[in-house]
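ok here's the first one, seq then struct tokens
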Amino acid sequence: MAVPVIAGTTPQVQKETEASNPRDSLLRVNSNNQAFDFFRPWRKKPPFSRRGIGVLIEGGRILVTAELVANSNFIELEKAATAEKSAATVERVDYDCNLAVLKPVDPGFIKAMNPMPIDGNLKVGSELEVLQMEPNGDIARTAAKVTTIGVGGYPFENLGLLVFKAAVPLQQREGSFTLPAVRDGKLVGLLMRYDARNQTAEIVSTPVIRHFLKEMEDGRYEGFARLGLSFASLRDPQLRRHVKVTEPGGIYVTEVVPGGSAALAGIRKGDVILEIDGKSIDQDGNYDDPEFGRILFSHITSTVRHPGETVAVRISRDGKVEDLKVALQVPDRSRLVSEAHITDRAPRFLVLGGLVFVELSRSYLQEWGADWAKAAPQRLVYYDAFQNELPEDRGKIVVLSQVMPTPDTLGYEDLQNHVVLKANGRTVRSLEDLAEASKEPLGGFHKIELEEDPKLIFLDAQSVEANKDALMKHYALPALQRL
């Protein structure tokens, strides 16, 4: 989150006095990052650096956003006043909530520093400050005011979690990728996005931070649960009559994720959810939170409650009210057709005779740039967006991403981004299926069946085997597969 300069604005920035200096709780965090290239999954992209501000909290941990250290090769902590440096490692990162905690390699590096306490009972209109660092280590404060509190999407997973939105006229300063938001010397959140045009910031909220840290306590981190359903508003009086609901609120369940928390508890498509955890749900899915006002119910199931806990859910089914107990659980990512993000690990691939196969993921689609939802192949975008509507046993979507020109791929060089259905007569639901199928050619040929034209590809199996060393050498491939 680089913070740009806004021409014509004069933010009220105050340098710290020694009496109120929070510098003893803040550290510069320098991260060297290097992401994988999903178009050429056997290699990485050029490295780059990010710099932000980390906050020392209890337990000798430094809290930052996950984006700051995503795909990091090396992380360095730096004291603002003395420029002393120490290496650090990631103790825990959760891209769903965009948070990470770092630990210095040398614990003595932070011995004289003071942890910053965590606050967070903010309301719309609450005043806070965003902290930045001058090159000489002085702390600069910029006044901000909370304008909205609600459930919004987080960058990686687009999971709906509580977000503080604030009006704040930030100036560009080096090292502004992650910035702490404070009130009365206590941490209330971390900036994760900044809209320079409108001078508004989105802040990882305190309840999300507390949930993240609480999950770490027993050493068995699970993260954030999902209820596992989609819903529609029940404002339409005809729909309310159709589902026989007489109560004033309620939401209509449109989809239930197979194997998810709701499905295992017996919630079905067509049910109407009236209450969650004793809180009445209105026609848009909101409830009255005692701290933050009217917000979406998923704040209860994802943040207030933890995985493994049980919540009471009152539903109406065919006009009859029932009470169910829902055991909250995190989603089973192995069941996902297309993963939302692949970070800190290498993407999987398989090369067969010059045909490059990958598994569909949003990280792959994002290689088309910021406008990937329009620029990427629309069939693949559809599969990613509507994967819950695919058959439950669909498995992964294997994509012929590109074709390397080789003696075995003559005539196929222009093929790219085709969905693979079968290989050598075997249904392909993963790269492992493709790898196993490639061991048993049909009549001396590899037969690849595609979803779209040209429908079929044939490779001479004996030639593919004979040319594989030359293929690796010519294209500098470290391996022909990573599974």
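and now the second one, same deal
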Amino acid sequence: MHAKAFLIVGAGRFGSAVAETLYRSGHEVVVVDHDESVVQRVMTSATKALVADGTDERALRDLGASNFDAVVIAIGDHLEASVLATAAAKDAGARRVVAKAPSALAERILLRVGADEVVRPERDMGVRLAQHLVTPSLVDAFELGEAYGVMEVEATAELSGRLAKVRLPNRFGVQVIAIARSGKLKVSPGADDEVAPGDRLVLVGPNEAIARLRDHLSD
């Protein structure tokens, strides 16, 4: 795995979770926050943690914002600060800016001021919880852009057997790209590979195919 570098602006619950996950995955992570006590708490979960004003273009430029693979604006529910930090990151030369938004309005504003991607954690988790409640066998699902998606499901009796017999591409238009069983992962399984009830299948396909399979599993 090629290690990447990330700058996290804001060390609240969301920012610290992003930082710790990236850091534990072997990436370079620099976290900045205006609150020294918050910075102290994340020092062991990042390559470097600094007290700095993430809304200041000069401060972000001095930190080398243009050298990071992505700058994550993780400032809480303060829209004004998020907007200023997003604009400052872009002006400082950031290649990719991902910003957290608390609402649809905030999402539109952040996109207008230069965010390359906006995430809404509470909405996204709400959607995933609702999908899981309707389809208990659905472990997770997310979209890859506008056309394709990935989903992870727990294999039922109906989805068990040789992949050639289960015929997921023919029936639903999705491809099995991995099978997880007892902590082991089989990547790019073939038609003769067996699926047992309880296995986890990682599937990829057009969003409409993903939705069709999800609806089928929820029946």
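notes on #2: The CA atoms of residues 165 and 191 lie 8 Å apart. Residues 121-134 form the longest helix (14 residues).
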